Amino acid sequence: MTVPPAPSAYPPPWTPLAPPRSARGRRRAPVAALTAVLVTVLPVAGCGGGGTGGASPGGAPATTKSFDINPAPRERVRDGGTLRWGITEFPTQWNLNHVDGNLAEVKKVVDALMPAAFRSDEKAAATPNTDYVLDARVIATSPRQVVSYKLNPRARWSDGRPITWQDYEAQWKALRGRDLDYHVASTTGYQDIASVRRGDDDHEVLVTFANPFSEWQALFWPLYPKSANASPEAFNTGWLNRVPVTAGPFRFGSFDPTAKTVTLVRDEHWWGGRAKLDKIIYRSLATDALVGAFTNGELDVFDIGPSAPDYARARNARGAVIRQAAGPDFRHFTFNGESPALADPRVRQAVVLGLDRSAITRSDLQGLDWNTAPLNNHFFMNTQEGYQDNAGGLGKYDPAKAERLLDAAGWHRASPSRVKGGRELSVRFVIPSGLALSKTEAELTQAMLAKIGVKVAIQSVPSDDFFAKYIIPGNFDIAPFSYIGTPFPISSSYGTYADATRGPGGKVQWNANFGRSGSPEIDTAMRRASSDLNPERARAGANEADRLIWQKVNVLPLYQRPQNWGVKARLANIGAPGFYTLKYADIGFLR
C-alpha cells in the first residue's frame, strides 16, 4: 500500500507505483489500466509465503496468495522469444519521478530499464539489489543517521558512464523539494536528507539525514542518471517521448505512436544475468480491448484488474492461466477538494455517507472469488500489520445523515436536486472510456447520490487522456482509479495526501495529491510516522494521519484490490507480484 500505486509505487511513488501504496505514492491511474504508483514507508507483513496465508486483520480469504508468478530457475527458462505485454495507456512522460510520469504503466516499462537500489520479496522484506548495490546499511545514528551504499562497480549507464555517487546526489537535489521548478511526484524521504557525498571512492555513497527516516530503503528506487536531474528542464522535458539512457537487462528499442507500442530489446552490455527474452513489446489498448487481444493470442500477459467479465474470458483463453495475489493495491474514488461543488468538506462527507461502499465493492468484485470487506484505511491493507478501521461514522452508509449535512452546508432540496444561490449541486464523475468497471461504479454512484439530491454527470474520456488531461490538472469532481503500492506504506503515500506547496509567484502546487485537500496536521502526523524508528509508534502515527484524512475526504477507499493477471501458461517469473519485485532478466518461456 500506500501506492504507491502503489504508482507503483511499488512505486516508488502508495507510488505512481501508485501510489503506491501505491505510487504515489503511494501509492498512483484507473484500475486495470492507469494505476497511480505509490511508494510506501513502513515495512509491512505480507500474507504468507508463496502459497497461502492464514486469516488476516481485515478478513481477507485464508487462501490468498502473497504472490503468483510461476517462479522457475533460469535454467528452466529458454533463451529468446518476444513477450507481448498489454497496457492501457501510451505514456508520454518516462521520468517516473515526475508527477506526470508517476504511473503504473510507466513503472512496468521503467522497471526493465532503470536501476533500483533495493528489491522486495513476497513478504515485503527489502534487500539491496546487488546488480546495482552490493551492500547498504545504517552506519551511524548519532548525531545524525548516515547510510552507506556500496555500489556495484560493474554497473554502467547505456552511454558507457559508470553509475556513481554523483547520480545519487543529483537525484536527491532534484527530489528534495527546494526547487519547485522540478515537477516532482513526491519529495518524501529526499527532503529529510542533509547531504549526499562521495565515500571512500566513486562507488560508495554516504547519505546523511537531517531528520531520522526509518524507511530509507524506499529511496533511489528507481535511480535516474545525473543528466536527467541536472536542471528543471532536463527533469521535466528530457524524458518526454524519449528514453535517452538506461541501465537494465533491457534497453529502449522504439516507440510506434500509430500502433501505440513500446519496444524494449535485450541489452547485451548488461553485466547481470543475461535477459532470457529477446524483446518485450508493450502494446497500449483500450481497457475493454485488452482481454480480446489476450484471448485471440495477440498478447501474452496483461493486468486484468477487478473485472469479473474480463476475468472469466481470460480464464477460458486457450493456453492461459489467471494468476491472482494480494498486494498493496486498493480501489478508490478521489474527490477534488478544489472543485466548486466539493470545496466544502461537509459536502464531501455527505457524498461519502450517501454512497453504499459495500454495494459498490460487491458489484466490482462479483465473480472474482475475493474478499468484499470494504477497506477503511488509507495506508494499510486488510492483510497488513497496522491495519485498523479509522473511518468512524464516515464508514457507514447513512443517507439521512448525508441529507442533514447538505442542509447545514446551505444546499437545500428543490426536487429532485439541491440548490444553493441559484446553482444546482451537480458533480462530474470522470471515467476512462472502455472500462466497464468504472462505468458501473459511475452509474451506481449516480443512482445513490440522486437519493440525497446530488446530481451526477458521468463524463467518459479517452484512456490516454484520463490522467494527463483530467486527473493531474484537476479537471474532475470525482474519479475512480486504483493506487498501486510498494513495501513501504507511508513514504509512498505521503505525496498523495500532503498539503499544497507554493510555487513561483505563489502558485499553489499539489504535486501528487490529486484530491487537492490536506492540512499541516496531516503532514505532521505522516512525518512523525516516517521518522520514528520504533515500528509500533510509526504505525500509530500513520493511523493518526489516516483518521485526519478520513475527515478531509480526499481519497475514499473502497477495497483491497486483487491482483489478477492473465498470463500464458508457459510463461515463468511473471504474474501477480504482490510485494515481490519482478526480475525482468528471468522472465521468459519455459523450455
Condensed summary:
With 591 residues, the protein is an alpha+beta fold. It is 22% helix and 22% strand. The chain has three domains: 66-84 and 249-319 and 569-590, 3-Layer(aba) Sandwich (D-Maltodextrin-Binding Protein, domain 2); 89-245, Dipeptide-binding Protein, Domain 1 (Dipeptide-binding Protein, domain 1, Alpha-Beta Complex), CATH 3.90.76; 327-561, Dipeptide-binding Protein, Domain 3 (Dipeptide-binding Protein, domain 3).
Which features would summarize this protein structure in a list?
3 domains, nine-stranded mixed sheet, Dipeptide-binding Protein, domain 1, 591 residues, 13 helices, alpha+beta, Dipeptide-binding Protein, domain 3, globular, D-Maltodextrin-Binding Protein, domain 2
Q: How would a crystallographer describe the biggest sheet?
A: 9 strands, mixed
In order across it, which strands form the biggest sheet? Answer: 1-19-13-22-12-2-11-10-9
The secondary structure category is alpha+beta
Q: Which architecture name of the largest domain does CATH use?
A: Roll
Distance between the termini: 35 Å
Task: Indicate the CATH topology of the largest domain.
Answer: Dipeptide-binding Protein, domain 3
Give the tally of β-strands: 24
Low-confidence stretches: 1-63
> What percentage of residues falls in helices of 4 or more residues?
10-25%
Count of domains:
3
For the record, the CATH class of the largest domain is Alpha Beta
Mean pLDDT: 88
Given the structure, what is the number of helices? 13
CATH evolutionary superfamily of the largest domain? Dipeptide-binding Protein, Domain 3
Rg over alpha carbons:
22 Å
What does the overall shape look like?
A: globular
